[in-house]
Amino acid sequence: MARRLPRGLWELPSGGVEPGERLVDALCREVVEETGLTVTGVTGHAGSFDYASRSGLRTRQFTFAVTVGATGPVALTEHDGSAWADRGDLPAVGDETRALLAG
């Protein structure tokens, strides 16, 4: 999980898919860009949800379970904190993320 200011909500690394980019490639790119961690495998699709982005556009977030080469050090570029969290003990996340991870 990574905490994004100014709201202080915790979220999963995420971002857009570039033109011509495969979803799995975007996943790997966004994780390394936002955390410095390298995805070594995608182990499942946790689900997706729609939300309004900061620009007001309707956006769909796809969430995947992954393995990483190493769990640290985490090098944040867009967040001010990071933590590994258990599904049963989530920090202050958005309602959509909580519902997705609780399921």
Write out the strand line-up for the largest beta sheet, numbering strands in chain order. 2-1-5
Strand % is 25-35%
- Strand pairing plus helix content: what structural class? alpha+beta
Catalogue the unreliable spans: none
Number of helices, counting only DSSP H or I runs of 4 residues or more: 2
SSE order, one letter for each helix or strand: EEHEEEH
Overall shape: it is globular
Mean pLDDT: 92
Q: How many β strands by DSSP?
A: 5
Radius of gyration: 13 Å
Largest sheet: 3 strands, antiparallel
The portion of residues assigned to helices is 10-25%
Q: Report how far the terminal alpha carbons are from each other.
A: 17 Å
Which tags fit this structure?
two-stranded antiparallel sheet, 103 residues, 2 helices, alpha+beta
Give a written overview of the molecule.
The structure is a single chain. By secondary structure, the protein is an alpha+beta fold. The protein is 20% helix and 32% strand. Strands 2-1-5 form a three-stranded antiparallel beta sheet, with no helix packed on it. A two-stranded antiparallel ribbon has the order 3-4. A hairpin with a 5-residue loop joins β3 and β4. The model has no long low-confidence stretch (mean pLDDT 92).
Describe the structure concisely:
It is built from two helices and five strands. It is of the alpha+beta class and 103 residues long.
